[in-house]
Amino acid sequence: MWYRSSSEQIDEVPKRITPTLIGPGADVWSCVPGAGMRSLSGTSMAAPHVAGLAALLMQHRPEASIDAIQNATTGSCKRPAGISTLRGNKGVPDAVDALALPEATS
Q1: What is the SS3 string spanning the chain?
Q2: Average pLDDT, the chain
Q3: Is 28 a residue whose pLDDT tops 50?
């Protein structure tokens, strides 16, 4: 399921791993023209999940800084079994855990 994750090692000092986290981007149902639905995969399917989590956190804690939202999001991540840090880095954010983290209140 996570094989479509877009990641690479950046050749610079210090070495960075991109991306910081991954979203569910394989076999995601999406609207298509003509009032239809289709299963799609890729970064375009994963990004809205992470953006949606940021929006939920901002609504839940409107006083939180952008850094606090980012810390809550990355702090809630769990890497799926079998995914190396080179592919999944911190892993997939968990909305329930992110809302409960103290970082979301800063």
Answers
A1: CHHHCCCEEECCCCCEEECCCCCCCCCEEEEECCCEEEEECCHHHHHHHHHHHHHHHHHHCCCCCHHHHHHHHHHCCECCCCCCHHHHCCCECCHHHHHHCHHHHC
A2: 82
A3: yes
